[in-house]
Amino acid sequence: MKIASKLQLAGAGVILLVLPHVAGPYWTNLLNDMGLYTILGLSLNLILGQAGLFHMGHTAFYAVGAYTTAILATKFDVPILWTMPLSGLLAGLFALLAARPVIHLRGDYLLVVTIGIVEIVRITLVNNVFGLTGGSNGLLIVNPISIFGFEIFRPIHFYYLILALAVITIILFYLLHNSRFGRALNYIKHDELAAESSGINTTHYKLSVFALGAVWAGMLGTIFAAKIETVSPQSFSYSESVLLFAIVILGGPGSIPGVLLGAFLITGLPELFRELQSFRLLLFGAAMVAMMIFRPQGLIPPRRRVYDVQKYLARFPCAISSRVPNSGAGTAGTPAPNPSTAGAE
Amino acid sequence: MKKIVALCVALLILPALSAFAANIKIGLMAPLTGSYASEGADMRRVVELLAEELNNKGGVNGSKIEIIVQDDGSDVKTAASAAQRLATSEVCAVIGTYGSAVTESAQNIYNRNKILHVATGSTSVRLSEKGFPYFFRTCPRDDEQGLVATSTLHKFGYKNIAILHDNTAYAVGLAEEIKAGLEKAGTAKIVAYDALQPNERDYSAILTRLRGAAPDVIFFTGYYPEAAMLLRQMREIGWKIPMYGGDATNNSDLIKIGGASVVAGFRLISPPMPGDLNSKAAADFILAYTNKYRAVPSSIWSVLAGDAFKVIVEAIGKTGSTDADKMADYLHTKLNNFEGLTGAISFDAKGDRVGDLYRLYEVNSRGEFVLQ
Amino acid sequence: MIEFFQQFTNGLAVGGIYALIALGYTMVYGVLKLINFAHGDLFTFGSYLGMTFLISFALSGALPPVLAVVIMFLMVMGCVALSGYLLEKAAYLPLRHTPRLTAVVSALGASIFLQNAIMLFYGPNYEVYPDSLRISSSVNLLGLDVPVMRIIMLSISILLMLALYFFTQKTKLGTAIRAVATDQAAARLMGIDVNRIISLVFMIGPALGGAAGVLLGLYYGQIRYDMGTMYGLKAFIAAIIGGIGNIPGAMLGGMLLGVLEAMGAAYISPAWKDALAFLILIIILIFRPTGILGERTAEKI
Questions:
Q1: Across-strand partners of C96?
Q2: Considering CB atoms only, which of A105, A120, A285 is closest to C116?
Q3: What is the mean pLDDT of each run of 10 residues along chain C (301 residues)?
Q4: CATH of the domain at B111
């Protein structure tokens, strides 16, 4: 089993590595879009899926990142890749500022406020504040990304860049999911009040996850800016946010494989059915409704967190094992090994 | 088994054979959906009609022309991916598109992929100021439009002028040109300079605001749907001052939305309308178009797409090549007063069309655009 | 000063439309705690239906204009109410007991579906109401130029709102709606058929939205398949400002939003109008999370 899954992983890796050479530039370009949405979806998943915050304004953070890059690259001639940390930082900072006053809002209220944030950001960009954003034309990036003198501008170059980022993102977010932080988020999602009572500073955690998701979206904005070359307000509209939201919800909120599948379906399928051009959005809408009715948990819901109590107890042989005759009653007599596992699924 | 092998071989050879008598592929990027969908539909009809005529005559240099259409969705993002798609589908040249911002997002992609790019309705000045060697356009530029607008306003003796744009690339550019022109001339005062939000219905708030500034004329640099709504609501609040528009108000939908009685008296600066073109080429074209589609093109922009097609074919024919460098060189230096549908076409070093094309039109009470 | 009052009337006209649409949001939210994102598109649908009836049934020619308009209003409200009913049965009923998020996504999906259905059927371009029914003159009220159409439009929307208000306050059915909004379980124990009431709400709300669509078409003349998104969002903001779930709140919120927008366009900048609407929303939510007329309730645990 272990070996088989390792083989599967290796096989998938090989396929992903050679795919753009087989697919040609047109399909590679599509794969790149898919990759971007995947990473964006993963970063939104932290907020929406892990912490359960109704956040439909992710493109605002993405926009801050993309515009940071575009402004630095066009007005100050900063090499594009160097702007990436700053893009992330500014997006994170913006998220903190924007989310701080509204973080206590619940459910639908937060949803509408985050839509508002997207629209306010978009209108600010259109109105060319301080003459920096270029109004509705946006900004045009002329110089490509260069890594040690190697210029990235063809779809296939971007493919490997995005693939690398996606792999890093998946690994990091997987670790995060299984960390204390990740468990705390899940706790907040399932029962905020109980989480608060168990000593979790919910506001702190909610703000942190907002900032973290935003940093990621901001950094991705850099790549998006370099790829699309024209950074304009139209790319950061409300409907784009809806799309991202749908990726996470359809795939399975809180589940990394779910988001991967969601991004693949939502960005890939409409492209495959280009022939049906005008019908594809109609079908897309109908599919969203149908999905929610038949699989309300998403296509690949997150796995329940499973903890092997026996194994945990085995680490303290003298203290506990004598008092616990069988594993079923294990938790009863012991102090809770980790308070935040209690509420998590 | 043998049969299957033979079939496979045949299948492999077939595309190779057809590639031998290769069609020349020309891309058309047009707004088939979105706000300017009616422009896009016309562009497609015009270009497909001309391609069909040419192919019936045997094509160019013995090759047929194949038009590959991509929808730019009237927006920047869709256009960028449409351009990527065209760039990867082996076209030698691309025609289009209508909106300036939309064209701009695609420009870079064509330039990098060495594809000849002839824009058709994008009049924003900055498009040709970037030094892209493969970029051309068959439409005039906004600085020329700005000059004509300024001199028209001057000619009719307006003293207090309100300028209104809609924050789109094109409208802002034109508004700035007019503002600069008026400030330079110094004969009239700009009493208001504002932006509205396109794709809305109620513009009474902004009209009331403008009215407070007491202009004798409004110049609106945006597109036809908003122009029609502005005119309607001016009528409703009983505000009777003349309104002028830029070339993006040149579309028959202006009348449809506003109603002929309301729009009557509206004046606009525009290249000549299809019906006012008086060359033989234009007359033949309008006849052929009317025969095929039972209507005349609804605006000049689609006819300019036809011109783009014609100059591309001319460049392919004269250079005997589909190499972008050769074609661009030919268009820059050798093409001189080529007879297009909208008159003689030559390009300057930046790829802009040489010559003055702008005219003043007025809408009459039957809802027709009349050349002044 | 004249300009200020002129802007005030401009704002009221837009606010009347917002308020009518907001009623649909607020009623549905009241009973189901669901943002019916498809409501804006039902409004668009009403607008297109009105146009179709006017043109294809030649209502405008055969009957006296006033009668024609009344008949058209009733037909549109009936049709949109029916589609609201079907929408609830298809997209929301199966999700009554799932997490809230799923219903939100279902609503978004329904919105995309409806919008594209309208686009496929009627085309992506601007459509125009026949001009014959419009009165394009204006009257002078206390020194203000007020278009006659605007007065008619505002009176119809106020009339509809009042009718709804008395319906929910004075009739038995209206009381049942309020009971379901307050506490579904208790209402069920009192013998109220909760499902029937929810269906009823999903008919009344869209019917008013459809009426707003027709008013918009008659007044502005020009409609488009995607207009529901922005009007819907604005109306939802209006509902929250007024206090969601609260019927007079939706009316107040709509009018207030319309007037504030007009003032913003007049005295700040027209290009920032929409941003201003969202900003007002955020400010109100920070300082009064339940809206102006909303009651502060203890969070249920």
A1: none
A2: A285
A3: 84 91 90 89 94 75 74 91 93 85 86 91 84 72 78 87 90 91 88 91 93 90 88 91 87 93 87 89 85 64 39
A4: 3.40.50.2300
Residue B336 within any structural domain of the chain: yes
In a domain? residue B361: no
Cβ neighbors of B4 (< 8 A, separation 6 or more) are none
Q: Where in chain A is the domain with CATH 1.10.3470?
A: 20-294
- Token look-up 């050349």 returns B371
Asked if C222 lies within 8 A of B206 by C-beta distance, the reply is no
- A 283-302 residues with CB below 8 A of C? 284-289, 291-293, 296
Among the ranges given (A10-24, A30-44, C137-151, C254-268), the one the predictor scored with the smallest mean pLDDT: C137-151
Q: Is residue B66 part of a domain?
A: yes
Flag whether B182 is in a domain. Answer: yes
- Best C125, C152, C225 member to test B by mutation, with max B CBs in 10 Å, is C125
Task: Give A320's Cβ-side CA count (13 Å radius).
Answer: 20
Write the CA distances from B108 to A322, B314, B333, C80, integer angstroms: 74, 24, 23, 47
Cβ within 8 Å, pair B195-C224: no
More confident residue, A309 or B288: B288
How close does chain C come to B103, measured CA to CA in Å? 21
How far apart are alpha carbons B194 and B179 in whole angstroms? 12
Q: Which residue of C has its CA nearest to B255?
A: C128
Domain A20-294: which CATH number of 2.40.128, 1.25.40, 1.10.3470, 1.10.1330: 1.10.3470
Domain of B259, in residue numbers: 143-270
Q: Are residues B133 and B167 in the same domain?
A: no
What's the rounded Cα separation, in Å, for the pair A195 and A342?
A: 10
Show Cβ contacts of residue C49 under 8 Å, excluding neighbours closer than 6 positions: C75, C76, C79, C80, C210, C213, C214
Are residues C109 and A238, on separate chains, in Cβ contact within 8 Å? no
Residue where a domain stops, chosen among B270, B296, B325:
B270
Question: pLDDT of A82-111, one tens digit each?
Answer: 899 999 999 999 999 999 988 888 777 888
- Cβ of B37 under 8 Å from any chain C Cβ? yes
Buried b / exposed e across B251-267, counting CB within 10 Å, b at 16+?
bbbbbbbbbeebbbebb
Which one of C43, C126, C139 makes the best mutation probe of the B interface by having the most chain B beta carbons within 10 Å? C126
- Please check whether residues B57 and B182 belong to one and the same domain: no
Q: Does A266 touch chain C (CB under 8 A)?
A: no
Q: How many CB atoms lie within 10 A of CB C230?
A: 18
| CA distance, residue C298 to nearest chain B CA (Å) | 40
Task: Determine the pLDDT at residue B20.
Answer: 44
Architecture, CATH, for domain C2-287? Orthogonal Bundle (1.10)
Domain spans of chain C, in order of start = 2-287
pLDDT value for A36: 92
Domain final position from B220, B251, B270: B270
Asked if B49 and B119 sit in the same domain, the reply is yes
How many domains does chain B fold into? Answer: 2
The model carries a pTM of 0.84
Instruction: Determine whether the interchain pair C105/A250 forms a contact, defined as Cβ–Cβ distance below 8 Å.
Output: yes
